[in-house]
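Budget justification aside, the reviewers requested a transparent look at the raw inputs and outputs of the sequence design task funded under Objective 1. We therefore reproduce one unedited record. The lines immediately below are the structure tokens for a 370-residue chain.
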């Protein structure tokens, strides 16, 4: 996909959304009911995070023109790409959009050079010029020595760079990356992630990245948009999202416990009858959320006495040990997950069904309006 100029009648000026991407996508697709709005500026990389089936890839397909909207609008740099009400739909091959698919989708019978040149040739560029431009892009991604290699002769990281070169060779104004690191094994992912960040830095257009890995978002994105069940549940910088998670999915993603309830005078009462004392009395009364780090929760065989202002009786539901840390999921009026050491696990003799007491200092509870 790429930079074939759009027909003049599709350009509507500032009323179409100005510079960058503006998306208002409404699509019904099987069990998915998608209703997502987002914006992204040139030079910005926005990561779409969310569980499987949430609608992340469908958003990319809508932008690319592979999935027409039922309602809404896709605008790029003031040009309408899709607007069902106005009966405007720009075909995928005419959109100034480059795509790096999850499995790269390189043509197995073509060399790396031919794969990169393919998009240019499909848009009317002459064979000689297309090959010259493709060669220049392979050099930019450090693969000029592999121009004659078939995809099967390349590593996963090299295939990704060929796919990236193919997407950028057509000089798009928007680059879409659908789980570009998912096909790589864990041993190579960090290295390829660093390479990808370096190559993306040279692209001045809008960039959208679909991923389920918060590490990708941390390393690559300027901003994240969390999509759950076809809706945007949270958006902001990764620091903002992790500091104040607003759904259980986000809380689990960043490794904290999230409790919802009604806050009155520094005391949060949950729907299950649990009571959590909050140290920050400036949080306004009303519906609120409280985030608690698993590492801040201490476990005791008997009710503790002393400084903790939060103590809850609980039952061990699950014990999961990883290397030098143990995660203990607790059931009770305040269901939380605690993280302890193997030594503490052995001392407390924890196993499913065992009754314990959990405690956490009020200063370790981060509360904020829901």
């Amino acid at each position: 996909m790429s930079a074939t100029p759009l027909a003049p009648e599709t350009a509507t000026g500032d009323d179409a959304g100005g510079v960058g991407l503006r998306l208002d996508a409404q699509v019904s697709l099987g069990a998915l009911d998608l209703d997502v709005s987002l914006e992204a500026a040139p030079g910005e990389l926005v990561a779409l995070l969310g569980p499987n089936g949430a609608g992340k890839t469908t958003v990319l397909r809508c932008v690319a023109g592979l999935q027409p909207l039922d309602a809404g609008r896709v605008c790029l740099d003031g040009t309408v790409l899709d607007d069902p009400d106005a009966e405007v739909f720009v075909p995928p091959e005419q959109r100034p959009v480059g795509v790096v698919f999850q499995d790269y989708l390189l043509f197995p019978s073509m060399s790396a050079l031919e794969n990169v040149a393919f998009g240019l040739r499909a848009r009317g560029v002459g064979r000689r010029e297309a090959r010259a431009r493709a060669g220049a892009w392979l050099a930019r991604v450090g693969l000029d020595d592999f121009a004659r290699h078939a995809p099967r002769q390349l590593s996963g990281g090299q295939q990704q760079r060929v796919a990236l070169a193919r997407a950028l060779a057509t000089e798009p104004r928007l680059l879409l990356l659908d789980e570009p690191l998912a096909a790589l094994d864990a041993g190579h992912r960090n290295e390829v992630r660093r390479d990808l960040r370096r190559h993306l830095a040279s692209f001045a257009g809008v960039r959208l990245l679909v991923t389920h890995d918060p590490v990708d978002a941390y390393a690559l994105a300027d901003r994240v948009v969390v999509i759950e069940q076809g809706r945007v549940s949270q958006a902001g910088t990764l620091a903002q999202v992790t500091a104040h998670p607003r759904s259980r999915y986000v809380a689990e993603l960043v490794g904290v416990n999230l409790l919802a309830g009604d806050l009155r005078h520094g005391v949060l009462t949950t729907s299950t009858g649990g009571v959590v004392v909050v140290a920050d009395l400036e949080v306004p009364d009303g519906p609120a959320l409280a985030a608690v780090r698993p590492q801040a929760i201490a476990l005791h065989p008997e009710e503790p006495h002393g400084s903790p202002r939060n103590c809850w009786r609980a039952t061990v539901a699950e014990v999961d040990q990883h290397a030098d840390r143990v995660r203990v999921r607790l059931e009770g009026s305040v269901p939380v997950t605690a993280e302890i050491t193997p030594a503490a696990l052995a001392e407390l003799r924890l196993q499913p069904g065992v009754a314990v007491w959990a405690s956490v200092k009020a200063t370790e509870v981060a509360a904020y309006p829901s």
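The chain is about 25% helix and 35% strand. Residues 1-15 have pLDDT under 50 and may be disordered. Computational costs for records of this kind are itemized in the attached budget.
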